[in-house]
Amino acid sequence: MTPILRLDGVSVTYRGEDGPHRAVVDANLTLRPGATLGLAGESGCGKTSLALAVLRLLPRSARVDGTILLDGHDIERLTWGELRAARWTSASVVFQGAMHALNPVRTVAEQIAEPIRLHSPERPAAARVRARVTELLEQVELPGARRDAYPHELSGGQRQRVMIAMALACDPRLIIADEPTTALDVVVQAQVLALLRRLVSERGIALLMISHDLSVLAASCRCLGVMYRGRLVEEGPARQLVATPEHEHTRALAAAFPTIGDEGSRYPGAGEPGESAGGVRGSLLAAEGVSVEFGDRYRNRVRAVRDVDLEVMGDEILALVGQSGSGKTTLARTLLGLCPPNAGTVYYEGRPLATSGRELRAFRGSVQLVLQDPTGALNPKHTVYEAVAEGLRVHGCADDEAVRVREALEAAELRPAEEFTARFPHELSGGQRQRVVIAGALVLRPRVLVADEPVASLDATVRGEILALLLRLRRERGLSALVITHDLGLAWNIADRVAVMRSGEIVETGPVERVLTEPRHDYTKELLAAVPSFEGSVS
Amino acid sequence: MTDTRDEFETSAASTGPPPLLRFVAAKAGGGVVSLFLVAVLGFFLFRVLPGDPARTMTRSTPVSAEQLAALRHRFGLDQPLYLQFRDFVIDLLHGDLGTSYIYNRPVAELILERVGPTVLLVGTATVLAVLVGLWMGARAAWHQGGPVDRWFTSVGLTLWSVPTFWLGLLALMAFGVGVGPLPGLFPVAGMSSANVPAGVVPHVLDVAHHLVLPCLTLVAVIYAQFMMVMRTSLLEEMGAEYLTTARAKGLREDLVRRRHAVPNALLPTVTLIFLHLGLVVAGAITVETVFSWPGLGLLTYEALRVPDLPLLQGTFIVLAGSVIVMNVLAELVYRLLDPRVRDS
């Protein structure tokens, strides 16, 4: 049987201003019809370049060496016409549809129908195209009524289903899925993965799936490959590769997705509150009976947070977990005093939160926020120094500004601080940027850090470093943290206690060990079941 | 967890479109309020100007104090300001914009006469400039950094930076009067000639002939802004991931551009185009003056020289009104083009 895809010594080189950059170096792989291969690696490891090279979708600045045989044809030798005919019929792509891979001003039906019309030998009847689109939407379990929706009217999971329907439109023999579930929350991710798995195995379609998340790949693909700095460093059956990783990078990737319940994947110091030097016991930041309502565009009242009691103790890391839309960010904003509750009270050190004036300002200084995306959180026109010093200036403590900025940078492990102060965000790596954001919070010497998905946009190895930093800050400074996340693994890694939130309510609270290993509420069980696990690998 | 379970987060948009009528009514209501504020502003703005209108009207002839008083009485200028304002508002509601000092005719009538020529000139020029500008902008962005881009951008920016009256005068001399052996190809002033045979076709041809120079002058000066906005906006879209999706589907490059990139890139230009359409009525005062085109711009220029307060006030209200109307229209069109705005 001819392989559907074969790469022979493929390299991808980008011409750049500072010389050529080799994104992929000498990659070899073979994919037989109906086979499934997962390609794992951090951002910038060349996995997307490799995928795009298969359909010659790379920008003009890229040069591809070696041979790529798609369905037995050398794609570098195809004319543009032949290549266009092969695109989507031989191989189609599922991009990260949750974000921007769909055209925002066209309905999903139009976008699904487009390749059907394009690749039909003669102009197909409108009714036939319509029937085919309906069929495809049914296959991805979307109601036919959503066909005339625009991408923004759909949820992330629904958009990803549209991407899958689109990829199936011309019955391809290979589907390349590039981060198909990134930016989806666990439960939706599990649904989308199951759907994709079922569709490719039913139709005998080969699947090349690319992700930074080893657990997602292990749950969907029979074989795995790990890429590191452009090279394919390890390859093998999923089970074996995960159980006995040989390359150290494979081990690092696997470590980023901890096995919940495994004591070995908890970070040193996690689950040991109250053992730090300067920590204070007792309730630091608390919500009592807090409800928050919003008016939506139809003037309906939406209760984002319902009657929530939550306490962040001194010297404690509390994880607030839940799906997107569960109200966890709204609750965090309320705790920060950024969003007044409709009912209930927020207490800081036992006193109700002031609504204005000096007291509120002092409170804001002691409770600091760290956001998910450090690139968006930093002003691209401000140097690191400006970014960190801004909080000091706002709070009017400018006397020893330079000293405190340096301290904060070093506390965030940006050493030596002098090397970073004059740099701009675009000159830093993702992990360094997140450290700058954290330094900006630390500079005010806060008591509580509220971190909203602090590592969601970071790579596996950097993720570990940032989490270790949070634990170290707790140990050395007694800094409490409220970590908001959809990632139960993250809670398992570092948190002392966990609160599970669903539809605006806290359904379960307790020590991490208890809640995540012996969940009492059905929803917690559901969340845990949705975490992709190596055990769930297809056999 | 099974596949069949409905997703937790569902879109609220499935409950049906928000009432369009309410949106239109709200926007139109806002427009009316702005229009009234403009009228009030116009009235007081021209009342605080220094100078005595009665004296300006009779500048060239010696008049007695009694004659001046009679004149003031006739135009209501001897009344207290609030009474004048009351009369102004009542008249305005009846569509009466007062009587021009210099023409001694109703302002509304004068403006109505001049609106046609202005809409013809500036409307034609704007439509041409939009078409040319958007097309060139799309081409320039698609071939960014290439010779097409460099030529389009540099020529466009040069013309944009040229003073309108100067370009108009050059065009007038080169193609109207004629340079050296070159005869004058186009008429130099006005909108029609006196000795044209009767009939619709000769009249239309004659007006079109008169239209060429002022229209091209205007197009040359304004098309670059549409081009630059389109270029920037398309460049922003060109990195978009949905274009990679479109290419992966096997679409030809020009289809990727036409079907996917341009419709998205057009959105920011809509606001600019409608702002310009609002200024259509304002006419291009300079172009109309240079080419003696009998439009609102020339009328405003004449009114300014006196100054003819009721006439200025009238043109002011009409100009501001058209900008407001076009802004309301722009919001409606934007809703049609961008589904994301429809739901917000």
From TrEMBL, chain A:
Its main location: membrane. Coiled coil: none annotated. Keywords: ATP-binding, Cell membrane, Membrane, Nucleotide-binding, Transport. GO terms for molecular function: ATP binding; ATP hydrolysis activity. GO terms for biological process: peptide transport. Transmembrane segments: none annotated. SUPFAM superfamilies: P-loop containing nucleoside triphosphate hydrolases (SSF52540). Pfam families: ABC_tran (PF00005), oligo_HPY (PF08352). GO terms for cellular component: plasma membrane. Residues 5-254, 285-528 form the ABC transporter domain. It is a peripheral membrane protein. It is found in: Cell membrane. Belongs to the ABC transporter superfamily. PANTHER family: DIPEPTIDE TRANSPORT ATP-BINDING PROTEIN DPPD, OLIGOPEPTIDE TRANSPORT ATP-BINDING PROTEIN APPD. This is Peptide/nickel transport system ATP-binding protein. It comes from Actinopolyspora xinjiangensis.
Automatic annotation (TrEMBL), chain B:
SUPFAM superfamilies: MetI-like. One of its GO terms (biological process) is transmembrane transport. It is found in: Cell membrane. Its main location: membrane. It is a multi-pass membrane protein. PROSITE patterns: ABC_TM1. InterPro entries: BPD_transp_1_N, MetI-like, MetI-like_sf. The chain crosses the membrane at residues 28-49, 119-138, 158-177, 211-229, 265-291, 311-334. Keywords: Cell membrane, Membrane, Transmembrane, Transmembrane helix, Transport. One of its GO terms (cellular component) is plasma membrane. Residues 115-330 form the ABC transmembrane type-1 domain. Belongs to the binding-protein-dependent transport system permease family. This is Peptide/nickel transport system permease protein.
